[in-house]
Write a structure and sequence with these properties.
The chain is mainly α. It contains 9 helices and no strands. The termini are far apart.
């Protein structure tokens, strides 16, 4: 099977998240682009960059598990997307363990956390949300063994 190219994955991810915004009201695709660039800048390979573009697609119901199963993506890209997809009611420890045991997933989550915890992004949120998210991201970095 021929796999989707990175430009095709980007286009698909942008279309899937069209009209969605982040907590600060910015177009959600900006976050996807930042995570993909963060993965690339950290030495990630094409499978990881594709997973970065799609990292929130199933979790946010922009795309379905069935779509992911049938998608023209490498098995590794699919595995990373599944690893970084939070499941409803899942304890953070289980989520972190899945990321740590899936080859390639930690780099994608590291780039995601770096962008989520960016002070410029957090600064526009209300204090309660900012504090809650800062604590949540710090806890996940600790569970994953990532530096502050």
């Amino acid at each position: 099977m021929t796999h989707l190219s990175l430009p095709e994955v980007e286009e698909l991810a942008r279309a899937a998240h069209a009209g969605q915004t982040d907590k600060a009201g910015r177009p959600y695709a900006e976050h996807l682009a930042a995570v993909a660039e963060g993965v690339r800048a950290r030495g990630g390979d094409p499978d990881q960059i594709a997973a970065a573009w799609l990292h929130d697609s199933v979790e946010d119901h922009a795309l379905t598990e069935e779509w992911l199963d049938a998608a023209a993506l490498s098995p590794r890209t699919k595995a990373v997307v599944r690893a970084v997809t939070k499941r409803s009611g899942e304890p953070p420890e289980s989520y972190a363990e899945r990321i740590l045991t899936t080859p390639g997933a930690l780099l994608v989550k590291q780039a995601d956390l770096a962008h989520n915890a960016d002070p410029g992004r957090l600064a526009v949120l209300d204090e309660g949300t900012r504090d809650r998210l800062t604590e949540k991201y710090a806890r996940m970095r600790a569970l994953l063994g990532l530096p502050e």
